[in-house]
Amino acid sequence: MSATRWTPDDIVNLDRYPIADLANPERKALVERCRRSLDSDRYFVLPEFVRPKALAAMVEDAMANRSNAYANRSFRNCFLQRRKDASLPEDHPRNIFFDSGIHMIAADYFAETAPLKVFYHARAVMDFVAETVGLPKLYPNEDPLQPANVACYEEGDRSEWHFDSDNDFTMTLMLQAAEEGGEFEIAPNMRTKTEEHTDILRSVLKGDRSRVVRVPREPGALVIFRGTNSVHRVTEVRGPKLRLMGVFVYEEKPGVIGDPEVNMTVYGRTGREEAA
Known about the structure:
Blueprint: H1 8-11, H2 25-41, E1 43-46, H3 52-64, E2 70-76, E3 98-105, H4 115-121, H5 123-133, E4 139-140, E5 148-153, E6 159-162, E7 170-176, E8 180-181, E9 184-187, H6 198-205, E10 213-215, E11 222-225, E12 231-234, E13 237-238, E14 243-248, E15 250-251, H7 260-267
Antiparallel strand pairs: 1-11, 2-3, 3-5, 4-15, 5-14, 6-12, 7-11, 7-14, 8-13, 9-10, 9-12
Helix pairs in contact: 2-5
């Protein structure tokens, strides 16, 4: 793995995205453009958000930790539930199940000096993200496993249609694309906090693509989307080349530690073993 002493300036492509310069009118325009996209499309994509050297180092670190990736396999519905509801019709979205499988490299396998972690903890990144998603401030998640991790998609892996649980937004960074497959697809506005659009959601789950958007994302692209109200998936990966994606979890208040049961499901351990 790289021994480079990384700084945020080494990692973020500040030439294209001047997020650290609060007085720069280009930064203000960028934030406004991202917020408009989130409001209208429920996602935005920023290509080449990290510099090529930093991106290569992130891939190197992920590949060095490939053997530590936990095989997360599940048969579930789009609400991440693993049991059917006998009180509902068989074709209700809560009773439509899929096989999913990815490999997750937890945050604690990456050194604090690794570019993935330096990027995650950069105040300029956190402040920029907070502004784009409409929050006053963001804080690092303090769980040992969750804050900055890598999802590895091997041949045959896929993440089927699902909503994210309760985060206000989802933030990912494409590190490496697969040879084939591994496409990110999203169907925006499938539910609100008070209402599920059952008929529309059912049609998407059963193959209707009229509301599905395939989001282009090359290596180095930052993607933020409203995953709690937009059902989304990653299609099956084909070929030996891994699809590698950085996943980042921020919080609206300091000191948040993740649920051990969630960690056991996603990473195969609670994250509390080391402290025991």
